[in-house]
Amino acid sequence: MKWLAIIVTLFVLFLSGCWSSDEIDTLAINMVVGIDKSENGFIISHQVINPRAIAVGENASESPVVLFEEEGVDIDETISKFVSKSARKTFNLHLRMVIIGEEVAKDGIKDIIDYFLRNNEYRTDFYIAIARNTTAKEILKILTPIEAIPGVDLYNSLELSSQRLASTKPMRIIELANTIISEGNNPVISGITMDYKGDIIPDSLEELQKSKNIIKLVYSGMGILKEDKLIGWLSDTEARGVNYITGNVVRSVGHSYYKDDIKITYEVIKSDSKITARLIDDKPVIKVKINVLANVTNVTGELDVSDMNNTKILSEVLENRLRQICEDTLSKVQREFKTDIFGFGDTIYRKHPKLWRELKSDWASEFSKLDVNIDIIVKINQLGEITKPIFMKGD
Amino acid sequence: MEIKITNNQLFSLTVSTSIGGSILVVSSVLSIIAKQDAWIVGLVTPLIGVFIVLLYCYLGSKFPNMTIVEIIKKILGKWIGSIVAASLVFLSFILCINLPWYVSNFLTTHAIPETPPYAINFLFVVAVVIAVIYGLEAIARVSELIFYFSSVLFIITILLLIPNIKIENIQPVLEHGIRPVLEGSIFLSAFITFPLINILMVFPKNIYDIKKARAAIIKGYLCSSFFVFIFLIVTILVLGFAITASSQYPTYLLGKEIKIGRVLTRLEFVVAIVWFATQFIINVFFYYSTLIGLSQLIGLKDYKKIAIPLGFIIFIMTGVIFPNVIYQGFWASIVWTPYIVTHGLILPLVLLIVYLIRKHIFKNV
To answer: B112, A174: Cβ pair inside 8 Å?
Structure first.
């Protein structure tokens, strides 16, 4: 017993923790992975933190991140080749974003998802976006002005825009894989692009010192995937429509007109949707019921919004506007893309599994003919800090 | 004098034995079998299982001051009894080899892939051997401690996962009928019900009061099946059955999904710790049973004398028991169920029948 204790103590001394331990000064922390298509296979880019530039107390004269690029036939093989370029081992547990090039997305992303789910160096909490009209490499090159590390900027901006504007959808890998597997649902992934309002591409710190004319990264639209292949894009407003229908809206803003000259701006503060499937004459009919709670944030024109009688007008105006957004989106998706991104197929499957077995083989064409009723109920909550429009001519 | 353990300790030993290896692994195979209805399996299994556990208790209570090895020898006679008992002891021995393999496989899959499995197995097996040398009393106390510790972490994990739940993931309920659910419940019983035959190593020999102890065992069994049910339903609700089915350790993936604000993330190792703790205590308990069983078979007075030599055998075997993960998957889903059903269901039934015949017809037990 005593000898055993001594031997074990010795082992503890010599084994000193984990075999596969990595000290922090041997790691290159990878924030964003970009995947582009090349003639032979893939171009993978890594956005790696430059530890010297972000260290506390150091004068930041170097770029906070460094871009590494490698070309190869296979993803994992290509990523493994990074060690020949960097003195440090890539560390992926802090990965924030995976940016997929548009061309890659058009070819299908199944193998990419399999790679990220299988490899133990990745967690599942990063978001996925598609580089729209550009390549992932170009996106990763850009430095961001306020947040020093572009990967963090991209991550936070995606979360914020989905919570405040509802024009994006932060897609994590588990949900993405589930929607691809599901027969009655298809994924949407937000697009990321550069806004070409500026003319300087900020890929070094000197350019970043200017406050205007620099190109910024912006989320734009939503890519529609048929299973795992990108087939088209929705605009920001249509993306909002998708989020309203699928119940992903936390907050959003918009405006609408009443009698052409009165403009009402509203802020949606709460929204949920309920999708139900019914059978009418043995045909499935989808009913989408959306409940919205909104504040009025701006009124221009002659409408006393504080008047009880006008509350109904207000909510009707809003209802019409939201219905229009949703119906436009729906008809575009049904006619142009013929791809069920709303999960209506899944709704039918959950309610009528037997019917679904007949429908699912030809769901794409069934979906384009599907009867969908959208029902929107808006409740007005607050009018802001003033009641009547302040410049309204009183009687 | 015999060492006696309290009912509370028996309760926690039952929970550990029953929950043991299953919690991290079963949801994957169950969602292959029963798809989105895997959680119903967790509800159905204890309904049947409770009778099997009652059967174990009945057998045990007829032979106070005996372990299952002695009971088998007594009922089936010296020669046949010894062979059957040896087979049962060998089953616990195989389990003692399996469990460290799972631990090292888990760690090398998820955390430290470059570490040789033997390095992890060594520390684990040494801890198990030392624990067994300290004796049953220490084992029972540790199992009590670990039960409280893991329950708290378990509840916290589940509460933190509530925001990720999607109710659509379990619908439609019973799409493929009740058949896959029943198939799944046989599989789940192989992990949470049948291994409980091992509790007969301490019940009723090391127990104060048989009636109260029986209640403790039943409570322990129901408690562990409740835990397994909760884990199953949360796994399916959060991950969906397709992802659960194709991942090796779905519960760990579940831990990765926890994300509340910016602070409460990266908690996957909390899940792993709970699992290590239960894995350790079940391994200690099965090793204790192996040693007691073996020493009773070969007529040793002190089981502690063979604890270290057998420990070396286990340590070496952990590296060769499964050549790779694919074979382990095959073993867990195809081989294990009939193997444990033979020992956990057929054996006690045969014992019961032979016992009743000998008691009422030949009147020689």
So the answer is: no
Q: Is the dihedral of CA A250, A253, A259, A263 positive or negative?
A: positive
Structure tokens at B208: 């104060």
Phi-psi region of B256 (alpha: psi -120 to 50; beta: other; left: phi over 0): alpha
- Chain B's closest residue to A182, CA to CA, is B242
> Omega before A187 cis (within 30°)?
no
* Cα separations in angstroms, A101 against A15, A93, A137: 44, 22, 8
Chain B window 223-252: which residues touch A at a Cβ cutoff of 8 Å?
A: 239-240, 242-243, 247
- Find the helix or strand (DSSP H, E) in which A4 lies: helix A2-15
CA A284 to chain centroid, in Å, comes to: 30
Q: Cβ of B253 and A4 within 8 Å?
A: no
B172/A18 Cβ within 8 A: no
Half-sphere exposure of B200 (CA within 13 A, CB side): 32
Residues forming a β-bridge with A268: A252, A294
- Alpha-carbon distance A199 to nearest alpha carbon in chain B (angstroms): 35
Q: Which structural domains are found in chain B, ordered by start?
A: 7-359 (1.20.1740.10)
Contacts of B112 in chain A (CB under 8 A): 18-21
- Confirm if A124 and A172 have CB atoms less than 8 A apart: yes
SS3 category, B94: helix
Between CA B286 and CA B26 the distance in angstroms is: 20
CA distance A213 to A202: 10
Closest in B109, B243, B266 to A178, CB measured: B243
Q: For CA atoms A339, A344, A350, A354, give the dihedral sign.
A: negative
Contact present, A277 and A260 (Cβ < 8 Å): no
DSSP-assigned letters across all residues of B118-151: HHHHHHHHHHHHHHHHH-HHHHHHHHHHHHHHHH
Between CA B272 and CA B269 the distance in angstroms is 5
Nearest Cα neighbor of B192 from B46, B43, B359 is: B46
pLDDT tens, residue order, chain A (395 aa): 788 788 878 877 766 566 677 788 888 899 999 999 988 889 999 999 888 877 776 666 788 888 999 999 988 888 888 888 888 888 888 899 999 999 999 999 999 999 998 888 888 889 999 999 899 998 998 888 888 889 999 999 999 998 888 889 999 998 899 899 988 899 999 999 988 777 788 878 777 777 777 888 899 889 999 989 999 999 999 999 999 999 989 899 988 888 888 888 989 999 999 999 998 888 889 999 999 999 988 888 888 878 888 888 888 889 999 999 999 999 999 999 999 999 999 889 888 888 888 888 888 888 988 999 999 999 988 887 887 788 877 65
Q: Do A18 and B115 make contact, defined as CB atoms within 8 angstroms?
A: yes
Q: List the structure tokens of B354.
A: 């032979």
CA atoms within 13 A on the CB side of B144: 13
Chain B interface test: which of A89, A181, A276, A354 (most B C-beta within 10 Å): A181
Mark out the alpha helices in chain B (DSSP H runs): 7-19, 22-34, 38-62, 68-76, 78-110, 117-134, 136-161, 179-192, 210-239, 241-246, 250-257, 268-298, 307-320, 325-330, 336-341, 347-357
User: Which residue ranges form the domains of chain A, and what is each CATH number?
Assistant: 24-234 (no CATH), 236-395 (3.30.300.210)
Cβ-proximal residues to A150 (8 Å cutoff; 6+ apart), any chain:
A31, A32, A47, A65, A140, A142, A143, A144, A217
Q: How far is CA A364 from CA A223, A340, A342, B216, B266, in A?
A: 17, 7, 12, 57, 39
CA distance B99 to B318: 8
User: Minimal CA–CA distance to A202: which of A220, A222, A217?
Assistant: A217
Q: How far apart are CA B43 and CA B40, in angstroms?
A: 5
One-character DSSP codes across A131-159? E-SS-HHHHHH---SSSSSHHHHHHHHHH
